[in-house]
Amino acid sequence: MQRVERNSKEYLMSVCFKLIFFTCFLGSFVYAKESGFQSGIGFTLGLGTASIATRARDGAEISKFSTSGSLVRDIVDDHALGWNAIGNSETLIDFGQKGIVKTRSGFSWHLGALMQKKMGNYFLGFRWIFGFNHDSSKISYPAGKWSIESIWRGLIGAEENYLGDNYGVLNDSAMSFSLKNKWFNSFIFELGYFAINKIQLFLGPGIVLQHQKFSYINKSGESLGGLSKTVAGPMMAFGARYALTQRIALGLEYQRQWLNRKTWHQVSKIIPDNIISYGMPTLKTNNNLFLVTLSYMFRAK
C-alpha cells in the first residue's frame, strides 16, 4: 500500500512539473498585444517544499484511571517517612511533559483560482488554493510505570503528619507518535505593486485550513491507527511574479502558516490496550512553504 501511494505521488509530481514546463514553453511563443500584467480571472499552480515546526506542549487535562500494585512503607527510627506505591505492569505514556520533536520536510503543491484588479501601479487580488503539504513531525513522550509517593514528616505526638502525594511516571522508556500534514485550503487577499511593467511584488494575509493526521508508531517504526483533525489559523504570503506574456506569469513565493493549538483527546483509541495515557498530547504547528508558482489569466483586459 505504501509503495502504491509513493508511486502515485511521484506520478503526480511528474505531471505537475511537465505542466509547468509545457505552459512556460508555450507561453514564450504566445503573442501579446500588450505586455505586463492585466486585470482578470485565472488559475494558479504552485510547486515546492513544506517544512513543519511543531511544539509539543504540556498535556491538557489529566485522564482518570485506577492503578494497582505493591505498597512499600519507608520506616526510619520508627518514623513513617512515606508510602511508595508502584503501579501495575501496564506502561503509561506521560503526555503531561513536553515531547521531543523531530521534523521532516515534504513536497508541497496546490491548484487554485486567482482574481486581480489592476489600479495604476498597484493591484488588489484574491486567491483560493487547494493543495497538499507532505511535511511531518515525530514526537516522543516519556513512558514507564505509574508511581505515587505520599510524603510524611514523621510522627508528631502519637499521630503521623501527612503532607500530600506526588504523582508521576517512572521515565524508563519512550513512546513515539507522528503528526502528518495532508490537504489544505487557503484564502488569501493580495496587495501588490508593479516594480516594473513585467515584475509584480505582492503580499497578502489569509486563512488556512490544514488537515492533519496523528498516529502511534510501534517499535518496528510503523504508523498504526490514526486520528484526523482540520486545524485553522492565520497565514501570510509574499513573493514576486514575472510576466512571460499578457496572460502567463511565473513566480516565487513564500507562505507562513500559523496553525492553532490542538489537543488530541481520543489518543487512547490509537495506542495498544496494555498502555495507559496520562494526560493528552497538545500540539501547535507552523508551516513554511517555498514555492515556484505559475498563473494563467483566462480573461485579461
Automatic annotation (TrEMBL):
Pfam families: OmpA_membrane (PF01389). InterPro entries: OMP/PagP_B-barrel, OmpA-like_TM_dom. It comes from the Bacteria. The chain crosses the membrane at residues 12-32. Gene3D superfamilies: 2.40.160.20. Keywords: Membrane, Transmembrane, Transmembrane helix. The keyword Transferase does not apply. Residues 196-298 form the Outer membrane protein OmpA-like transmembrane domain. Coiled coil: none annotated. GO terms for cellular component: cell outer membrane. This is Outer membrane protein OmpA-like transmembrane domain-containing protein. The lineage of its organism: Bacteria, Pseudomonadati, Pseudomonadota, Alphaproteobacteria, Holosporales.
